[in-house]
Write a structure and sequence with these properties.
The complex is a heterodimer of chains A (330) and B (319). Helix content of chain A is 34%, strand content 22%. Chain B has a single domain, classed as Orthogonal Bundle (MetI-like fold), CATH 1.10.3720.10. The two termini of chain B are 23 Å apart. Classes of the chains: A alpha/beta (330), B mainly alpha (319). The interface between A and B is medium-sized, with 34 and 23 residues. The structure holds adenosine-5'-diphosphate (ADP), iron/sulfur cluster and magnesium ion (MG). The site of adenosine-5'-diphosphate (ADP) has 14 residues of chain A, from α1.
Chain lengths: 330, 319
Amino acid sequence: MTQPLLSVTSLTIGVRRPKRADTIIVDDLSFDIQRGERFGIVGESGSGKSLTLRAIADLLPAGVEVLSGSIRYDGVELIGMETPARRRLMGPEIAMIFQEPMTALNPVIRVGEQIAEGPRRYLGLSKKDAMKLAIEMMAKTGIPDPARRARAYPHELSGGLRQRIMIAMALSCGPKLLLCDEPTTALDVTVQHQVLRVLEELCADSGASLAFVTHDLAVVNQTCSDLAVMYSGHIVESGRVKDVFSDPRHPYTKGLLDSAPDFDQPERELVPIPGFPPNLAARPDGCPFAPRCAFAVDACRVAMPPSVLVAPGHEAACIQSRSIFEEVAA
Amino acid sequence: MLHRLRFLPGRLIQSIPVVFGVTLIVFFMARLLPGNPALAILGQRATAAAVAALDKQLGLDTPIWEQYFLFMGRLFQGNLGTSLTYQLPVTQLVAQAIPVSLSLLGMALLLSLVISIPFAALAAFKPGSGRDLAVRGFTLLGQGMPQFWLAIMLILLLAVGAHAFPVGGYGTSALDHPYYLFLPALTLAITMCPTVIRSLRSSIIGVLGSEYIGTAKSKGSYGAALFRGHVLRNAAIPTVSIIGVNLGFLVGGSLVIEKVFALPGLGSLMINAIFARDFPTIQGVTLFVALFVVAVGILTDVVYTMLDPRVNLGAKDQS
Ligand SMILES: Nc1ncnc2c1ncn2[C@@H]1O[C@H](COP(=O)(O)OP(=O)(O)O)[C@@H](O)[C@H]1O
Ligand code: SF4
Ligand SMILES: [Mg+2]
């Protein structure tokens, strides 16, 4: 296999605290994203999805740091890279779309100028040409009357238009990797679908890879080719979307699928996962899902279960993944 | 942009009663000062007859309300009366002094921004750090310094000591003026800085924590470009109103500072007029200062509106 576009290895993110043990938020995370792959990261809120993306984009909030591990982009190590060099990757190589397009856009700058900023910096365009490109990008995201809208300020646009502006901005310099942090969560359901379609189309056109964070399984199913399920800072299951959805091998993934509405089977009863994710400061030893897991046995509480291959390209971190699911299936 | 400035005519009309009230206060305040202008002009040894004669000549012997109507009538013709001490039209005296005072204020404002922006940024980029504490310590110290004391210290240090600047005066040519204005402007700037720095520091911290800064970084922006492009303008918005309010205080301070540095501005004119009980001049200057403060208030709203596209002062309150 060729070198992956993004390779995250043993990434650990947390808060350093003087004279005490660090608070670990994301623990020993590893995954690869291949060129052209659309990689989904799902999990309940608080599982560390956003911080994982932010670590890749060098946008961790103050106080939160990468404690160890490696993030290689196109073979180049990003952890420890100087800020100027790392920022030069942002835009033409890696771009990011955020959850709340209202707060993610600068309220006092016209949206056209905000889109044109990257192209002016990287493509060496004049102010006029960069604006022309910005308007072109807006048209591509399906914004009607883009030349007029380019002169609008964010508060003058609807949520759906603002998120299209974010998409136009992120794709304006032709990035190879697009990081999306719940890009449709803040939008109305009908608008969600339109925005998602625009995003997919444009990524398919440009061949950009996608790292797509969401808590919405339906969105992953529609958008992504591969996925990782995160629970309490760990990846508990990963594989091709169709494999994981049709044959989940971790009780948490199974729980997520059972608790999510399914358009194919609207009559099916929804079964919520009992309990809450563990407090990060007091994670249980062993499997973090054990307190909520119906199958938990004493052995689960000894050590973090390693990820094991359950089928080609399909891994799960549950010591009983074979016994539970193969018996149930049988 | 322009449609958001539609509040302007309304604001101008609203300020008419304010200005009218100011004329009323100004007129009566001058009359309530202890002492008699004729006595002040003629000196303590003047005879009662001579004082009475001068009173009559100045129109000070008529009933006070008559004096006020006369004053207002002339005001509408742009006539502020004749200075009792200089025997010149007050409008002429004021017109000569205004450029001096405005340059002083303008330079003070400029200097306070030049000083405040880097210090505020230095503090805000690492809140809680040593340099943040140092900047905040400096703002406390600056706040406690009386203006005239600071002026004297600067004169001793930079003018008398280092001979870098003149002790006072305004110079003779337009090229001289900035050089002569520097120390008094610096004095005013330093007293203004603590407020500006504190306001800017806290708004920069707020801006740096906002999501759109993350977006800007995700477009590859960092360092000075990030600060200029996405931090400063957003952080300046709340500071503009703080500066607007403080400009009023700055005007008050500049009156004293002009006197200390012997600048021939409105402040010196005013203080000399007060000592000489030169009523028409006191009225003229006060009126102009009040007009200026009203204008600064309106200008603040205009700048605020231009910086922040979300502000629409003309819009009906929806809530
Ligand atoms: N700025 C921060 N400082 C300290 N802890 C944080 C910070 N931001 C997030 N966290 C912690 O990290 C956990 C994971 O956050 P996040 O990555 O935003 O989760 P998700 O995106 O999956 O909902 C949160 O539960 C929170 O406790
Ligand atoms: S390891 Fe044990 S507790 Fe964890 S998911 Fe599997 S069965 Fe449940
Ligand atoms: Mg999140």
